[in-house]
Amino acid sequence: MNNRDIADLLFPNLALTEGEVFAKYPQRNLDKSQIVTRFAPSPTGYMHIGNFFQAFISYNLAKNSNGVFFLRIEDTDKKREVADAKKVLYNVLNRMGIEFDEYQTLDGQDVGNYGPYVQSERNHLYHVFAHKLVSEGRAFPCFCKKTEGKEDVLKLRENKFAENDEREYDPCRNLSYEEVKKHIKNGDPFAIRLKTKNEGTERVKFNDLIKGDLEAKANAKDFIILKSDGTPPYPFAHAVDDTLMGTTIVVRGEEYISSTPAHVELFEALGFKQIQYCHNPLIYKLNEQGNRRKISKRYDPEANMMYFFENGYPTDALCEYLLNMINSGFEIWRKNNPDTDWRQFKFNANEITTVAPIFDLVKLNDISKNIISKMEGKTLYQNWLTWAEEYDAPLAERLKGEEEKFVKACQMDRDGAVKPRKDIYNYKMMKENFAYLFERPTEYQLNSEDKENANEFLKEYSKTFKMPASNEDWFAGVKEIAEKLGYAADNKLYKANPDAYKGNTAKACEFIRLAITGTKNSPTLFTIMSILGEEETKARLAKQF
Hints:
Elements: H1 3-10, H2 18-24, E1 36-39, H3 49-64, E2 68-71, H4 85-95, E3 103-104, E4 110-111, H5 123-135, E5 139-142, H6 151-164, H7 177-185, E6 191-194, E7 203-208, E8 212-217, E9 224-226, H8 234-244, E10 249-253, H9 260-270, E11 276-280, E12 284-286, E13 292-294, H10 306-310, H11 315-326, H12 329-336, H13 361-373, H14 377-391, H15 393-401, H16 403-411, H17 430-433, H18 435-438, H19 451-463, H20 471-484, E14 487-488, H21 491-496, E15 503-504, H22 505-517, H23 525-532, H24 534-541
Parallel strand pairs: 1-2, 10-11, 14-15
Antiparallel strand pairs: 3-4, 5-6, 6-9, 7-8, 12-13
Helix pairs in contact: 1-5, 1-7, 11-13, 14-15, 14-16, 19-22
């Protein structure tokens, strides 16, 4: 009896032959310039920004080359799987505008010719190639398990490998056909392990599209390629799936570099062409001491992609920020192309930064401010309302009930403005920024030394207040009353002799601003008064601090 007989014993009911599998998954009809990438998340119910970072790189590489980008759900680890996790994944990807050429819909329909696009539905394919490796003597069944009488064997294997750094000892790697048959007859569960050819002293070279040519110690472990439940761990599933599905570049985190020698040996054993790897740098944060650490769900709310939706960041802002982290050239490109869609920015895999980027929320906020400042008022209002409908229902009802008022608010210092305001970086903060439009202020940013002058000015100003026809008329009226009360109408005169005046006209305007908004900074006062209306404005001006 030979290895083929052992393989047939282990896999007696294969639905397809190796040739039939390749016939079912022919090479894609693409030219060399077209890249095929994929995003292959596990359905754990949570989308980490680092996972999206990989998806975003893969998406851009494929789209920039007019290639193919597909989604494959890697759900073979059932212990980690979370109910409705696919909905979470699809929700995040859809919100971010990531479109796939091939995928499986939430109701289980495959879109594309290289499915199934869910790994748990591809077990019959993995078994074909596990059978192949056993037949050729490159893999073997391992019946060892952690039960009484076997723990010492497993411990011996682990210790031998750890101490000697040589090929992992496995008592099952040379079982005879009769021994295997006996185990099968007894119903003993088994895993399939790759039978490594290495002794632990060899070196292997491989190429990374970001880091270039790398060299590392070759794999020397008989690692598992099929678990006892018949499902594959990542290395084997990756090799089979990405080969059959025509992936040309695999984007994954640089933590996989250390395991790449094992993957290289597996591709060689299967007779597959080695797929190119693009090991992207991981995203880091700075702790309070200024030291780097990986961004984490435990410490950093922004590690969860939902954070950006819940806080109302425009998705384009996050995409542009990630492009900054991926390729330093994006910032220069954006400066030279201020109004061009970010999707027009092109980069290759070898242009991705090799330095681990630091996530900086301040930088993201600056980018977001710039994007929001360019929105038309009506667009900003609609985006604010859309956010509120999901995260703040009472606010949404107020916005819809007073649409004209809040559209005008969103247009302030924006539509057609030479220098539009850049004080808003997400939709969540807008309610606080426009708090004076919802309710009369109850707190005021007034210095105690200004209280007497403020009360005097507002009392006089409110006596004859009528809604002016224009901003110029409004300012002229303020200037007239201010000068009457001892404020300098000419700022040069005030600067030359400040002790001669109670302040300048700007100080008088500050008192009005405080009475109406509660703050010293706000959009154009005349516009705010126009939105509030004459009656409400006059009521606020009657305020005595």
